[in-house]
Design brief:
globular; about 240 residues; single chain; mainly alpha; about 0% strand
Length: about 240
């Protein structure tokens, strides 16, 4: 048996609860991802490269990097998440696993939520963990780095959830990566604005409670609505395919 073979989704019985089904999908996606390590490393390497090359291409001055560092890290994280979104449903679509997911007795939106959570665990969370090191590289202060990590911890799941909708809509299309970017980037702008605004407020000594609460509201809204929209988009893409 080929060691690189992708594990398939086993039929989930009617008696199995929704949580158990989500757990099975989540565990399978983690197992598949660790068998395809290039898909894991590419967003992280891209994140590090963008942050590392930006001072060389623009300005290495400490004052400039201290002011623009949060924006650099946020934009790099946004683009890194965007880079990985095309693989969220693509491999399952190509090998027929996605059709099995749609036919499961459990609600599709819960299974989509499990896949999106796995995507964030493999992409968004590592970006958050790398942020303190890269924050020091762009001369961010300790308080700014802490607030930046907090905003990314709240914001990157929103990026994955919104991105799941775009990935589902563009599934099976030619040049899906370009179309995905055109669809998703405008929806990312509010998260980017408030994410960088929170860090700027912290650097100025202002209270960031309102900013954090608003970003948390974005997350709650995304968790509530995005899985339903992505599940509907998957059904449309599969019916058209």
């Amino acid at each position: 048996m080929n060691a690189d073979a992708r594990p398939v989704i086993k039929p989930i019985r009617n008696g199995v609860g929704a949580f158990a089904a989500m757990k099975a999908v989540f565990a399978r996606d983690l197992k598949v991802a660790f068998r395809q390590k290039q898909d894991l490393l590419n967003p992280l390497l891209f994140f590090v490269m963008v942050v590392s090359l930006f001072p060389l291409g623009v300005s290495p001055e400490v004052s400039f990097l201290r002011e623009a560092g949060a924006g650099i890290l946020w934009v790099a994280a946004l683009l890194s998440v965007l880079l990985s979104l095309d693989h969220l449903f693509r491999h399952d679509f190509d090998d027929g696993t996605l059709e099995q997911l749609v036919l499961q007795p459990q609600p599709l939106f819960l299974l989509v939520l499990a896949k999106t959570l796995a995507h964030w665990m493999l992409t968004g969370l590592p970006l958050v963990l790398l942020t303190p090191v890269l924050g020091v590289m762009v001369h961010q202060e300790g308080n700014s780095i802490a607030v930046l990590c907090l905003t990314l911890l709240i914001g990157t799941p929103v990026l994955s959830l919104i991105g799941a909708i775009g990935a589902a809509l563009t599934l099976g299309l030619r040049s899906a990566g370009v179309l995905l970017s055109l669809l998703i980037i405008p929806l990312y702008i509010p998260v980017l604005i408030f994410g960088t605004g929170t860090v700027a407020a912290a650097a100025d000594g202002a209270s960031v409670g309102a900013y954090v609460a608003l970003m948390a509201a974005f997350l709650v809204l995304a968790v509530t609505l995005a899985p339903f929209a992505a599940a509907a988009a998957l059904r449309i893409s599969l019916s058209n395919g």
